[in-house]
Q: What sequence folds into this?
């Protein structure tokens, strides 16, 4: 009888998802139910509570159940004891990363979901490397690694995701090793003070030659790359100075160009033209458009660097941005500044959808692979 009762109890417990390797509590009503499934008392039989008590005593003595404290007048409840060994605990396996990246993060105990995405992106980039790698500004490398749609939920502005403390963790505690791993270097803005009101050639521009064209670049990483390449290609362009536009500040600072460049007593050749290169988004096109009137007032043309913009569309990837054109007509007005070319037709749709090409897409690597962009500098 006790063996039949035990089998009945196991069936009852398994129907309630008992795993078999942990003790299972069974109270008196369930015990009586299991007993009735295998035993029918006759008119002359002992009360079923007494029969249950005897069976449980046999099972307890054989070490297959553990009796609970008995209440007055009732059989005790029990714990069904395990019938199998517990499985080995599953160890959560962290994704396999590139060995060089693993060396920098292997001591990290807890990884956030955002960091996991970042490590996957960096690892994928490292695995895809082929041949020599050019060391480039940090924001350019960040865009190269994270500038894919699969990462936009975590990194909506990929070119900035390695700034400051980035996504946290050991990589930003071992910056030198991390920068060496991804072949990148940080670029300090040309101004120590992020706020200013006047165009200062000594602080936010780089003198290159006696050329008569002023090149204005919206972002500091691209500024750094263009300065480096223009210095290497000296005498192949007409750029006399490269200025950091600092975003919308250029719409005001453009007015001071005549004061600081080409004034009486200044050795520099007077600028005849301003060439501009910025992000391909709503703000990036509004900035030069708003600065044009002030430039015309100084007797200067302000024109786009069309080859660089075409290259940005070709080699870059449009990603979701923070702003969009309110109407298609508004987008077309902005894009018309770039000039009439079928190359710029996709920009209208991108602006309407609220997407953008970050300027860093045309970085040092691209500028070093071709000299076609020098057409903008002559």
A:
């Amino acid at each position: 009888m006790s063996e039949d009762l035990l089998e009945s109890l196991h069936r009852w417990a398994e129907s309630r998802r008992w795993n078999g390797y942990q003790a299972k509590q069974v109270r008196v009503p369930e015990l009586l139910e299991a007993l009735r499934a295998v035993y029918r008392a006759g008119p002359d039989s002992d009360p079923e509570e007494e029969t249950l008590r005897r069976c449980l005593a046999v099972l307890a003595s054989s070490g297959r159940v553990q009796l609970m404290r008995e209440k007055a007048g009732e059989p005790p409840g029990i714990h069904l004891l395990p019938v199998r060994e517990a499985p080995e605990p599953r160890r959560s396996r962290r994704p396999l990363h590139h060995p060089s990246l693993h060396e920098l993060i292997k001591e990290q105990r807890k990884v956030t979901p955002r960091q996991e995405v970042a490590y996957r992106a960096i690892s994928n980039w490292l695995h895809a490397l082929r041949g020599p790698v050019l060391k480039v500004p940090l924001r350019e490398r960040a865009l190269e690694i994270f500038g894919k749609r699969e990462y936009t939920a975590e990194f909506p502005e990929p070119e900035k995701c390695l700034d400051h403390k980035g996504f946290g963790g050991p990589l930003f505690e071992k910056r030198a090793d991390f920068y060496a791993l991804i072949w990148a270097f940080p670029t300090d803005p040309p101004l120590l003070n992020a706020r200013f009101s006047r165009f200062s050639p000594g602080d936010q521009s780089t003198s290159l030659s006696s050329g008569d064209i002023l090149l204005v670049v919206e972002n500091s990483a691209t500024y750094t790359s263009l300065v480096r390449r223009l210095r290497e290609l000296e005498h192949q362009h007409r750029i006399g100075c490269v200025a950091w536009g600092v975003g919308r500040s250029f719409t005001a600072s453009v007015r001071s160009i005549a004061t600081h460049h080409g004034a009486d007593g200044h050795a520099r050749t007077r600028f005849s033209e301003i060439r501009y290169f910025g992000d391909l988004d709503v703000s990036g096109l509004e900035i030069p458009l708003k600065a044009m009137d002030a430039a015309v007032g100084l007797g200067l043309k302000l024109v786009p660097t069309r080859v660089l913009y075409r290259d940005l569309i070709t080699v870059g990837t449009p990603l979701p941005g923070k702003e969009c054109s309110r109407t298609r007509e508004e987008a077309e007005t902005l894009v018309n500044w770039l000039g009439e070319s079928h190359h710029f037709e996709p920009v209208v749709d991108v602006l309407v959808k609220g997407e953008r090409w970050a300027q860093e897409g045309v970085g040092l690597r691209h500028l070093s692979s071709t000299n076609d962009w020098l057409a903008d500098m002559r």
